[in-house]
Specification:
globular; disordered C terminus
Length: 434
């Protein structure tokens, strides 16, 4: 039963991490009013939520391999909780911005949980387990959008705060600290001491650099830019988009519209992992051009779907019908979910003894989309708020083309040994050193 407890613990921890990560999104209106922020500055705030994630994920992925997920997860949840509580008292926007920047590192817990789950589940069910973990975890953004503005409404008047967003940041910080204690107390690093030692010994810098530069790692990292990075950008932006793009001034209604994307992007993710597992088990081809590369075929299909739905977002927005735009957003979230589940079904299957390090690279690089895309959505030179989605879709095309090259059978068979830097000989020296 320990592996199911691990999955449950990791999922709850990441779900709440996602909630606290984007807990600012439902309150951008009142925060902008109090601190005097422009629409472009709100876009910067949404982008800033991702700034520390790339390096943080790369580092914590390696640390999880080295020291075990329970310890690292507990440390992150602990300091995130402290700074979330502190941000509730900030009077200066500069202080507030820095404190929320630190709170936003809650997103680095993703790779910790990925590593933790991979230490307990076998390859045959790994994609499904990782999909459940990440999917339900990602839905924390929807939970934040749906729950926080209702628990902390505009007319909030509590014992400590008269402002709803300050109360939300304080009490979510308290919960984060409590979860940190629970994770450290209940978590076990791996299913056996032998597995724990194998993972720990692979956590050298040479081993990390080698795996980080393989074709498989690089293409999955870039694919994660256009899927999870996209998801991050939408989580921080859509409430503002539905409010400003369609003159929907009701804070709860705009957040509810935004939550439909987060629900799709989160709760449908296990399907992406399950389909990847299923195609691999049944050895079923769905794209003849990648014959025999079953997981790669599903990943490629889902990446193409993401691009098409982003063009659909622009068309739906230009129609002026908010419900059509909400529906298009749901389809984008569905594409993200399928692709993310497919990608992280491949990661631990490729590198079973370095899953934390590789997940850190893929997850860390992937967050770059969350930094860049909000700046495109809110760019002042655009004629309207709807065009940014198509610009982002065009920027995704080179990644899809790179995936098409790497997923070819003669390239894919060596994607874990051939890389952009270093040679296969290096792998032997790394293994010997370890």
């Amino acid at each position: 039963m320990t592996k199911w407890r691990t999955l449950l613990l990791a999922t709850i921890g990441f779900n709440f991490s996602f909630l606290i990560w984007f807990s600012f999104a439902p309150f951008t209106g009142p925060m902008a009013e109090e601190f005097g922020l422009s629409l472009a500055e709100i876009g910067i705030l949404a982008s800033a939520a991702i700034w520390l994630a790339p390096f943080g994920r790369i580092l914590t992925g390696w640390l999880s391999d080295r020291f075990g997920a329970p310890t690292v997860f507990a440390i992150v949840l602990g300091y995130v909780g402290v700074f979330s509580m502190a941000s509730a008292f900030a009077q200066s926007y500069t202080v507030f911005f820095v404190e929320r920047l630190i709170v936003a590192t809650a997103g680095i817990t993703f790779v910790i949980g990925i590593q933790h789950v991979s230490e307990w589940f076998d390859e045959e069910t790994l994609g499904t387990a990782e999909g459940v973990y990440a999917g339900v975890g990602n839905a924390g953004a929807a939970g934040g959008a749906l729950i926080l503005p209702r628990v902390f409404p505009t007319d909030w008047s509590g014992p400590l705060f008269q402002t709803n967003w300050r109360a939300a940041f304080f009490y979510t910080g308290v919960v984060s600290i409590l979860l940190a204690i629970a994770y450290y107390t209940l978590g076990e690093a791996a299913k056996s001491e032998q597995k724990r030692q194998a993972t720990k010994e692979s956590a050298s810098f040479e081993g990390w650099f080698y795996t980080a530069t393989r074709y498989g790692t690089v293409v999955l990292a870039l694919a994660y830019v256009m899927t999870f990075g996209l998801e991050l950008s939408m989580n921080g932006w859509l409430a503002t988009y539905y409010r400003e793009g369609f003159d929907t001034q009701n804070l709860v209604l705009a957040s509810t519209f935004a939550a439909t994307f987060s629900v799709a992007a989160g709760l449908l993710r296990p399907i992406g992992g399950y389909v990847s597992d299923l195609l691999a088990r049944k050895e079923k081809n769905i794209l003849p051009i990648f014959t025999g590369r079953y997981r790669e075929q599903w990943t490629f299909v889902s990446l193409c779907f993401v691009v098409l739905t982003m063009f659909g977002m622009t068309l739906a927005g230009l129609s002026g019908q908010v419900l059509l735009a909400v529906g298009a957003g749901f389809l984008v979230g569905m594409g993200c979910a399928f692709a993310e589940g497919a990608i992280f079904a491949q990661v631990p299957a490729m590198f079973p003894d370095s899953s934390g390090a590789v997940a850190g690279v893929v997850g860390g690089v992937g967050t770059v989309g969350g930094i860049v895309y909000p700046l495109v959505y809110a760019a002042p030179f655009l004629a309207n708020l709807h065009l940014g989605y198509s610009i982002v879709a065009v920027s995704m095309l080179p990644i899809v083309l790179l995936a098409a090259w790497v997923f070819q059978p003669h390239v894919a068979t060596r994607a874990t040994t051939d890389g952009f830097v270093g040679t296969e000989t290096d792998a032997g020296s790394v293994a010997a050193d370890d």
